[in-house]
Amino acid sequence: MYSNKTTILVTAEEMKQIEAEIFSAGMPIASLMEKVALKTAQKITELYPLNRKKVSVGFIIGCGHNGGDGLVIARELYHKGYDVTIYVPLIAKLKDLTAQHFQYVQSLGISTVQNITSLSSCDFIVDGLFGFGLTRKIVDDLAEDIKTVNSWQKPIISVDIPSGINSDTGAVLGVAIRAKYTLCLGLYKKGIWQDKALEYIGQVKRIDFDIPSSFIDKITSESPSAKLLTVDRVKEILPLPRHVTTYKYKQGHLLLICGSKEYVGAALLSAYGARSSGVGMVTIVVPESLKPLINSQLPEILVIGCRETSLGSIETLPLLDWEKYQWVCCGMGLTKEAVSVVEKVISSGCDILLDADALNIVANYYLLDSLKNRQGKTVLTPHDGEFERLFPDFSFVGMADRIEETRQGAIALNATILRKGAKTIISDNIHTWIIPHGTPALARGGSGDVLSGFIGGLLAQNSFTDTINVDTVAAAAWLHQQGGILASEDLSTLGVDGVTLSQYILKAVNKLKGNGQ
Ligand SMILES: NC(=O)C1=CN([C@@H]2O[C@H](COP(=O)(O)OP(=O)(O)OC[C@H]3O[C@@H](n4cnc5c(N)ncnc54)[C@H](OP(=O)(O)O)[C@@H]3O)[C@@H](O)[C@H]2O)[C@@H](O)CC1
Ligand SMILES: Nc1ncnc2c1ncn2[C@@H]1O[C@H](COP(=O)(O)OP(=O)(O)O)[C@@H](O)[C@H]1O
Ligand SMILES: [K+]
């Protein structure tokens, strides 16, 4: 079982406790700082190698151990031949270890300047101002310094976390460094993966410093932690390789209930998404008038046309043999008037995924209790607007920690929630996955319809395995983003329409074979 502990996201408190375990086990604080900073310095020389020409580096040094790290890095780059200048705005309140490093750096003759503008001629900047010890808003001169550095549009490498970013919620505390690289120390801080931090973190790299996994377990195993989903984990979750003796019904039967005259494409795109999952069978329930189109576009899909309203929505569902289907996906392009359809799906007792208008209907008709207490598993795939509509007056809505807010939603509705966004969050009441890589190319109508069908198809297949739903939904979201990334590489950010996306998801699946399988 792939159980990489270092993809876990930790809060400042958890990191402090993990480091306290390291210190109480005998590792001197100064030694850990030295080890961490040496590895960080090494990474910086890889990012900005000297290659014979002079490279000048400006350091912003804080008063805490982030500053201590920065000073050790400054010293090491100096010894390697970089032109180093340091600026120590909080010189009046340096912690002891930081003060010692400052004294040594000065004894080496490394130049210390009195104001930030003296760094403006450096090739790049290292931000060792604040780490996870930042506790309050950055104001006054320090805030001005950060605005000044950002204004230079120069590469900034942030040690541990961009200074000014709350390491739990990702919120900007007044003002924050806009980093080109964030070199996260030891374990990923939770704030780095919150959508709010996205425009400040740049490219994130983790600097490993051999934290014993028993210490990580000891501190984090009690609390439900979020983790980054990695390619290795996705490979484990996918229903691959197939048994040679399999047959189509062993590969799952998915029921899609979606579409309307107004939103024909949503039904089509959900079906394309389902097709890309490789699910054994797909049955789609749509208003009668959509039937010929679906049949012509996706000949392998069984189409049940049903009576439609004057507006072209599904009026009533026909009698369905619900037992036949491993999963039901409902809502894509359904319109908000198909209330009885959603009520029937909720009371069907099947395992269901609700998206788009089905979510709006649940919100508008207060079906939350019937959702929470229903038989069968529930997956919800709201974007932020749908999420807020679902939980208008719940205490957790609007909390600073968006990852935790999503988990609270999952608990409230006894469901697995996929929260759409630049960083997709997938959570049930215990497990939370973050999809680390994404592309804004997906920010267009139809991407979500493809996603719902694709998730449904994977869930239907994995219903024959012991894979938990939150893992399957996360793997689907990971492949959906990867499909978008691959498509934008070939067709540009503007070229990732829903049909193209559904085809590139398969390229993303195929690429997994290349990952050292
Ligand atoms: N522990 C270890 O050995 C290791 C730790 N590691 C490194 O240390 C970092 C954590 O170190 P840290 O705890 O010293 O916190 P850090 O962010 O450096 O400084 C916070 C200081 O700033 C101050 N301050 C806060 N807010 C402020 C504000 N708005 N405006 C002005 N001042 C403000 C506050 O002092 P205060 O003003 O509250 O008295 C506090 O003392 C961590 O991110 C990692 O980089 C790694 O190297 C591994 C080894
Ligand atoms: N900036 C972005 N970066 C990455 N993914 C995005 C971004 N914007 C949207 N997406 C993804 O695109 C999809 C949009 O879904 P949704 O808003 O439901 O679209 P629709 O319902 O119109 O198909 C979601 O999977 C979301 O995660
Ligand atoms: K920093």
Automatic annotation (TrEMBL):
GO biological process, one term: metabolite repair
Cofactor(s) demanded: K(+); Mg(2+)
PROSITE patterns given in the database record: YJEF_C_2, YJEF_C_3, YJEF_N
Cofactor note: Binds 1 potassium ion per subunit.
Record key words, sorted: ATP-binding, Isomerase, Kinase, Lyase, Metal-binding, Multifunctional enzyme, NAD, NADP, Nucleotide-binding, Potassium, Transferase
Listed transmembrane segments: none
Enzyme Commission number, as recorded: 4.2.1.136, 5.1.99.6
Keyword Acetylation attributed: no
InterPro entries: Carbohydrate_kinase_pred_CS, CARKD, Nnr, Ribokinase-like, YjeF_N_dom, YjeF_N_dom_sf
Entry function: Catalyzes the epimerization of the S- and R-forms of NAD(P)HX, a damaged form of NAD(P)H that is a result of enzymatic or heat-dependent hydration. This is a prerequisite for the S-specific NAD(P)H-hydrate dehydratase to allow the repair of both epimers of NAD(P)HX.
Record text on subunit structure and interactions: Homotetramer.
Family in the record: Belongs to the NnrE/AIBP family. Belongs to the NnrD/CARKD family.
NCBIfam families: yjeF_cterm, yjeF_nterm
UniProt protein name: Bifunctional NAD(P)H-hydrate repair enzyme
Organism: Cyanobacterium stanieri (strain ATCC 29140 / PCC 7202)
